[in-house]
Fold this protein.
Amino acid sequence: MLRACLRGANATARKNYRRIPLTSLQQCRHYTAGESSSASKVVVAGLLTVSGGIGGTVLYAKWDHKFRAAVEKNVPYSDWLLGLALGPAAQDPGLPIKKRVELAQPPSMIEKQVKKEGAEGPVKDSSPAPSQPAQSLEEASAEATHIISAIGEVPSVPAPCDTEAAAVKECNECHEHKEATAVHPASTEPMKERPVEEVAARLAQQEQEEQDISASVSASLEDSLASSAKATLQAIGAQEAALQAIMQHTDKLKEAMEAEVLPEEKSNQWKDLEAALADRTTALNDARAALLKANESLDSLRSVIDESKGLKISSVRPLVLAAEENLHNMVVDLDKMVMKVQSAESEAKIVSQYSELVNEAKRQFQREVSSLTPEIQANWKGLTGKLSTDDLNALIAHAHRRIDQLNRELAEQKVREKIHIDAALEQQKLEDQKALDNAVNTALQHVKEDARLDQERKLAELREVMEAEMRTQLRRQAAAHTDHVQDVLKVQEHELKAEAEQVLSSKMLEQETRYRQLTQEQLDNFTLDMNTAYARLKGVEEAIDSHVVAEDEARKAHQLWLSVEALSYSLKTAEADVPTVPLENAAQAVRDSCRDNDFALALASALPEKSLQRGVYSEASLRARFNSLRSLARRVALIDESRNSLYQYFLSYLQAALLFEKSQEAPPSQLSSEDLDPFKLLSYASYCLEHGDLELAAKLVNQLRGEARRVVEDWLIEARLTLETRQVVNLLSAYANAVGLGTTQAP
Amino acid sequence: MSEKAANEHARKWDRCLADTAVKTVTGLGVGIVFSLIVFKRRAWPLSFGSGLGLGMGYSNCQHDFRSPYLIHGRMVKVSAQCNFHCLSEVCDTRSHHAA
């Protein structure tokens, strides 16, 4: 009894605490004892875990960028956090954007261009474009553009340039260069040859401009020339008049000095002299004014000539030259006249000085005479009858004294004469020298001017000659160029023709192949359509056939299902303790209805014989029987092969009487060795049976050993039978359902 | 068919008890007879006889209950012409299990 009690207590204890692990007891103890400390510990642990997780994530994101991207994408606000911690994510290096065009040219290119330009020969700047082939112009201009950009500076020069014969070649090169640069810096797009009309227009425009300028220049020159000529003539005339006046005056003066005429005539003479003097002064003034005017006009002419020289137009040159010559001549004439006038003036000065001296002497004498004889009048010749002898004597004495004085003075004068003459000669020499120098200078200037004019004339002639020569050369070159161009054109024509023919043939070929391809495609499409139509027709036929077949199948399935239903219904005919009807008929029906279905046939033949012949018991009957069997099994629980004496029987009965177990206990999912106790097994099996799980109950009952097993053997067999039959019937019905579902047509 | 298993046990018990009772009574009777005839009306033949009967009945009962577990073996003579590799059936005597 004690043993049984202990066993029972152990069993119950084990059952109750089987599932709880041993540690939980300890935990429970701890849990009841220190609640608060564990809560704080939990909190701390949680915090640690969270921070550790975040730190780990950040570190890993630093190491693996893809992970970082994934985290940023999936977790909101993580990009902010990661940006704070790690800085912005490294961007992919963008594609380097280089849009600069290479413009730097090595110096060799520049040399090459210069050589090329030089090789093309001297080209007149007025017709650069048509004389070059378009390609070379493009190349040259493209290279020029490169050079411009490389050099960086573009001197812009007006289109018409000097054509100095001496520096034709280099000049032309640089002109071309300059022209190219002048034309092209504005636009660096691909160059084209300037059209002929444009060139002609440009040339015409240039010529027109030249003509206009030359006309204006010539007009201005003529005007100034005319004015200066007039002025010069005027000046010359004035100068001549002045000269005449001076000479007249001088003559009159001489006359007046030397002539012994009557006093009335003398006064007339003096009056004439004075008039002549007045004339002379006026004439001189006029001459001076006219000279000034003439100088002014000559200066203006000179300035105009310089201006027109500055324009540097070829057609103006001869005009300029002529004007210069005229100017020179006028200047020369004017100078001559001026010199004449000056010489006349100097003579007049001498004469006037002489006359002044004479007048001075006369006055002196008069004063002396008057001082001696105050009564005597000026004109002493009329005084012969009035004078007394004393006066006469006094006068004669005075005269003698005067004569002596004069002789003395004369002697003195003779002595001084030489010195004076020397001095005068010296002075005269100096003055002569000066005059000579002036004359020489003026003559030199004139000669220089003459020479210069000559040189310019010669230059002009030479220029003309050179121009004529250059024209002939250019004509020759143009002829050569036209020949060359013709040849080149012929060659190009051939090439282009060949190319065009090739292109044409290739295009034709292409078109033919395309055409063939298209026709083939159409044929293929048609064949394809036909095939598809035929296939569809076939499909339709097959569908119809399969419909028929399917209907057949459906009918069969329906039949099968019906028979299986009948079978399963026949299973339900079991009553308490009475087995079902023998399932033979139903099985036969099933077999009939699935004659060509191997699976169903196999299943139908898998029904156990017993069920067919005798029928099976229902679950309820089995359950009921089990309950009665249970007590018996309990009673013989201790009996097996080794223990089967009557004493064991007695003990077994005792155990059954004293052992209390649950009438129903839910079986565990896995049986352990403790669960193989017959009492336990029986309670599990009861539970299963109560919950309708015959299979599990049978399995559990199957675990009984020994006498208990023998006792429940029949029940087990019956249970097995029932289970088998039920399984087969279930399978069949499932199969029938499946087949039926399979054959139903979807709406 | 389970009645057989369950009823068999009960039937066994019935038989057992009946048999034991009969044997005991029979032994008692024989004992009485013997006691009366041979052994001068002593008590010991009665107890002896009943005990004999009881014991026989007990033994029979036990045998009856054990009967499913009894294995009957037989001796098989190994013929001389047989090979060494032939398996010879081991003879099993009745195994007595300790009570």
User: Anything to note?
Assistant: Chain A touches chain B through 25 residues (CB under 8 Å). The CA atoms of residues 126 and 299 of chain A lie 36 Å apart. Confidence is low (pLDDT under 50) at residues 93-108, 116-135, 148-188 of chain A. DSSP finds 20 helices and no strands in chain A.
